[in-house]
Specification:
Elements (H helix, E strand, L loop, with lengths): L4 E7 L2 E7 L8 H16 L5 E6 L11 H6 L3 H20 L4 E5 L3 E2 L1 H8 L2 E5 L4 E2 L13 H8 L1 H9 L7 H7 L4 E3 L2 H16 L3 H11 L6 H15 L3 H14 L1
Parallel strand pairs: 2-3, 3-4, 4-6, 5-7, 6-8
Antiparallel strand pairs: 1-2
Length: 254
């Protein structure tokens, strides 16, 4: 529990994947790897027709990269490997031959915004504000950037990236296309997710697989692109600026 977990269940044609970490659902490398594995497994499971991706807890959906792990990185290869974890999750969602529905119950930061953007259909609470904070700590949203830009467009992605210290509201995220809908209560959101997943579980799996390919047309190079982006982040995380910025942030949190 202290190190977090990824859990997966499949019933009634619906694969439900849930992740948790006690530090605001931040994602260390081991959880990123597990998350990518579970999404891939659900995609290959013939009994699962649709995938629901969510996190546990009452506050944050996902705080992005684990700062404790970031500060421990001492060489480019280790940095590349860590950021490749986010690449693997995004690519697992992209390549799964089933629709992925994301349930965003709280704030999403950095990699959390990337996961929300990569999902095929994202529903959120009206408190689920978003922020791409990477530039504020000396790096950039290189790995998640293609997924975010694809979903909300270049102008909104640029704004979110440059104004790295500012939260944007769930309403803003809905207007830009990141969220398909927002809800005032978790009960309303879960009711809609359950109803949608149930309908999709009874839909033609061949049609949904073909549609998924249509939706993601033009991203066939992401296996290579996102790893190249991970190397960029892996290099920057070693800079003196970034090390100082991360330590300053961690001291505020503690």
């Amino acid at each position: 529990m202290d190190n977090g977990y990824v859990k997966s269940t499949t019933a009634g044609g619906i694969a439900a994947i849930t992740f948790f970490h006690p530090q605001s659902n931040s994602l260390p490398g081991i959880l990123l790897n597990q998350l990518a594995e579970e999404i891939t497994k659900a995609g290959n499971d013939s009994t699962a027709k649709v995938i629901i991706l969510s996190s546990q807890g009452e506050s944050s959906f996902c705080a992005g990269a684990s700062f404790d792990e970031l500060i421990s990185i001492k060489d480019i290869e280790t940095g590349k490997k860590f950021f490749s974890g986010f690449a693997m999750v995004i690519n697992a969602i992209r390549k799964a031959p089933k629709f992925v529905i994301a349930r965003v119950h709280g704030k999403a930061v950095g990699g959390g915004v990337g996961i929300a953007a990569a999902a095929d259909y994202t529903l959120a609470a009206d408190t689920a504000s978003v922020k791409l904070s990477e530039l504020a700590v000396g790096i950039g949203p290189f790995v998640v950037g293609p997924a975010v830009e694809r979903k909300i467009g270049t102008a909104a992605f640029t704004s979110l990236t440059i104004n790295a210290a500012a939260w944007q509201s769930a309403e803003w995220a809905k207007e830009k296309g990141l969220y398909a809908a927002i809800f005032k209560t978790a009960e309303e959101m879960d009711g809609e997710i359950t109803a949608l997943a149930d309908r999709l579980s009874k839909s033609n799996p061949e049609a949904m697989e073909m549609l998924k390919k249509v939706f993601w047309k033009g991203t066939e190079n992401w296996d290579t692109l996102l790893i190249e982006r991970a190397e960029m982040s892996g290099k920057l995380v070693l800079s003196e600026f970034t090390i100082n910025a991360i330590n300053k942030f961690r001291s505020k949190v503690k």
